[in-house]
Specification:
By secondary structure, the protein is of the alpha/beta class. The chain folds into two domains: 188 residues, Rossmann fold (3-Layer(aba) Sandwich), CATH 3.40.50.2000; 166 residues, Rossmann fold (3-Layer(aba) Sandwich), CATH 3.40.50. It has an eight-stranded mixed beta sheet with strand order 3-4-2-1-5-6-7-8, with helices on both faces. Helix 1 crosses helix 14, helix 7 runs parallel beside helix 8 and helix 7 crosses helix 12. The chain is globular, with a radius of gyration of 21 Å. It starts with 8 loop residues before the first strand and ends in a 10-residue tail after the last helix. The relative contact order is 0.13.
Length: 383
């Protein structure tokens, strides 16, 4: 490891909506990573979006928070906030501007022209998400191109993404995955009881309610499985878009489907801890933090066979073909009826903790910062 500098490295973080109790994989990544970087020798300012951060909040723990305006408009929120954020960073003059995700990375050339040293983390090809139209997909692809071409260093959260960066842009990247925190068991069940759930007798999915996560297909598979005494808990905030309304209507047609809304803290911990199994039928992931969290609680997992899920390396019987509702229903039936020992859960917890440790991830990220911040360190290209 590089020796710690005489003064802390000053880091500005761009591309996150918020850093405390905000739904989203990138936001969870930031909330876990940045508090761990401070004792390693960093000062961190998280540039967050006004709709997702209360007024007057200037710190979350030791992480400083700079709240900048962003519109609540799909396709404009990230772009306009990133423009404001890069201007703020240029005024603040950090040692590193760390941009998360390929949408915000579209401002990388501007950051370079303003004299900033830039690290970009590629969390996944977001243009593959079902919700985006042609123009938004084009912008996201441009963000990927410019972020990979003009950043001083690139971080990939999975081998799949690392391979994409190498094959499409002929650029190297550092593989630093998402992580997971230890999940001590909890005997408390008041939150699951309040949701109408029974410990060990419900399937769990934790995700935003968006088309690529495939909640509708999961509800249909659950209906086909018709497992007596079991429920399906979908944890995630419901928007007012057409897909969220369809999910809400489908859930209303099956009394055993429970929409809990967005949950954090002790409520989410209890819902994970007492689930019978975790299900992730999604069509698009970077490296799914929710799945890693489920494994940290020792849960059996059923996941779609997309590359990001396969990369985690679960047993073959844990996967099913994407959008194959009947096979998913069969997997649900199998996992609900098979015997599950305490030893099996403990083995999953140990397995994921050894491979996806946030403290190690923080040290690896610091190494990237230290290399890029070195005086005279050559950038990979020029705008």
């Amino acid at each position: 490891m590089h020796a710690s500098p005489a003064r802390p490295l000053r880091i500005c973080v761009l591309g996150i909506r918020g850093i405390d109790n905000v739904q989203g994989g990138v936001e969870t990544h930031a909330a876990e990573l940045y508090p761990r970087l401070i004792p390693l020798g960093c000062e961190v300012i998280a540039i967050v979006r006004s709709p997702f951060s209360p007024k007057g909040v200037t710190r979350v723990g030791a992480v400083r928070v700079r709240r900048l305006w962003a519109p609540r408009a799909a396709g404009l929120e990230a772009f306009l906030h990133s423009l404001l954020g890069v201007l703020y960073a240029a005024w603040h003059r950090p040692d590193i501007l760390h941009i998360h995700a390929i949408g915000p990375a579209i401002v990388t050339p501007i950051a370079r022209m303003l004299g900033l040293r830039v690290v970009v983390t590629h969390h996944g090809p977001d243009y593959e998400r079902d919700k985006w139209g042609r123009f938004a997909r084009a912008v996201l692809r441009r963000g990927e191109l410019w972020g990979m071409r003009y950043s001083h260093a690139r971080i990939a959260i999975s081998r799949v993404i690392q391979s994409l960066i190498r094959s499409r842009y002929s650029k190297d990247s550092v593989l630093i995955p998402n992580g997971v925190s230890p999940a001590p068991p909890t005997p408390n069940i008041e939150h699951i009881e309040a949701a109408g759930l029974v410990a060990g007798r419900y399937f769990l999915m934790v995700s935003r309610i968006v088309p690529e996560k495939r909640q509708l297909e999961l509800i249909e598979a659950f209906r086909l499985a018709a497992i007596p005494g079991w429920k399906l808990a979908l944890v995630g905030g419901l928007g007012d878009d057409a897909y969220a309304r369809r999910v809400s209507a489908a859930a209303a047609s099956l009394p055993a489907v429970v929409l809990t809304g967005f949950r954090t803290g002790e409520a989410l911990r209890q819902i994970y801890a007492h689930a019978g199994a975790f299900i992730l039928p999604s069509a698009h992931e970077g490296l799914p933090i929710a799945l890693l969290e489920a494994l940290s609680f020792g849960l059996p997992v059923v996941a779609s066979d997309i590359p990001a899920n396969l990369e985690i390396g679960l047993p073959a019987e844990s996967y099913f073909p994407l959008d194959d509702v009947r096979t998913l229903a069969a997997r649900l039936t199998k996992v609900a009826t098979q015997e599950e020992s305490a030893e099996s859960r403990e083995a999953r917890t140990r397995w994921v903790a050894e491979r996806y440790d946030w403290d190690r991830i923080a040290r690896q990220t610091y190494e990237v910062y230290a290399a890029v911040a070195q005086p005279g360190a050559a950038p990979n290209t020029t705008p």
